[in-house]
Amino acid sequence: MSIEHLQQLDKIVSLSKARGFIYPSSEIYGGLGAVYDYGPMGVELRRNIRNQWWKAMTRKHANIVGLDASIFMHPKVWEASGHVDGFNDPMIDDKQSKKRYRADHLIEGLIARLEKDGKVDQAAKVQEALDTAGSRDGLCEDLEAIIHEYEIKSPDSGAFDWTAVRQFNLMFKTQFGAVAAAGDNDGIYLRPETAQGIFVNMKNVMDTSRVSIPFGIAQIGKAFRNEVVARQFVFRMREFEQMEMQYFVAPGTDEEAYNEWLEKRMSWHLELGIRKEHLRVAPHPQDKLAHYARAAADIHYHFPIGWQEVEGVHNRTDFDMTRHQEFSGKKMEVFDQATQSKFIPYVIETSIGLDRCMLMVLCDAYREEEVEGDVRTVLKMHPALAPIQVGIFPLVKKPELQEVASKLETDLSDHFTVLNDASGSIGKRYRRLDEIGTPYCITVDFDGLEDQTVTIRDRDTMQQSRVSMEKVPSVLHQKMDAWAP
After folding, report:
1. Which residue, among 229, 253, 218, has the nearest Cα to 352 in the 3D structure?
2. pTM (global) more than 0.85
3. Domains defined for the chain, CATH in brackets
């Protein structure tokens, strides 16, 4: 990661706070690690992204319905899913700095340094040791042996003074009910993913929605993971929001459905206005697939921190439904009228983090442009995502101009998110709204009082045009429909 890229991320973090997108949580008390609050512009941007996803998933697919499952679920759900036994990271502590690291990440850092130094053979040897770690059910011991063999030092203190490697479960556990005692083994978990709420409700949805195979269930909701190494702004947080869709199909049709959904999901990112050169599909190698997966791929975005996952598409086979049938004792088979057969459905999953998606939009939209010897900061995002889509500016604070501006605000607010701003010079008002991504600004001046026209200024080109007041709504709709990155 170059210094230039780090500086770009710092600028986006600074802009996010200054313009009301994202604040550190509980900041007046010093903040809370890897937890953030969304300000006035942030909640609008997030809502717009949610709406675009929901529309793409449910409005455009008659066989996909919605769900909002509870955050609290029966503890056996997480036993069936494998999270109780397997949702762990191998952690190690630096005794000097008191900081905690993922052991496998330390080893991956060594491999990257060896490759950079041209020590390819040695890097391959370490990689082979990492790949085979845990093959004899001793993952922690194997990772610890590699760290000690190659004397991997702490990135922070530079010391070689480690604790033992041990597994750390990433689920938050809490007590349920007024009589629950501290340390009670009957506690429950904050869900680490939203998918399981869909799986356990599959039969309910089929019985009440009259859907049949193939069909999907979409859900947007909070999830919680006690990430020990949580960093890089909102990219990795302990409380985050997922947008997931589980698509239930007949065995034998799963491969075709997987490929179709991978293509659809990549198209959705492009439709958001994300630049094509900043996106890629990264299939998981067969030897790296999750235990439940037959195929999987990530959609990567080129963040300032490098290529990172934004969305995953997975063929989960019948693993989840079979496990829930086994642990609950309830039949998870479905009857397919077309083939007159019963089977446990396979599941194709699309899963995207809303917070990561928002960061992607901010990173992709962020520009610094020289304008008449000055630097203009602007967010060139899709107009459908912009927190404020139309700015209305009375040229000066005169009642007659403010009256027209207020009428425009009323007329447009049913169709767009609008801000009526009369504070400061026109230039400063343009800059403020450029920084929050407002695509169009309307200036009301004295000439317009005579001929019933206003000036519409385009965010991306900064070009201005005179438009009849009565045509403003239709002109704005045309511009937004025609927008291209």
Report:
1. 218
2. yes
3. 3-75+183-363 (3.30.930.10), 90-169 (3.30.40.230), 388-482 (3.40.50.800)
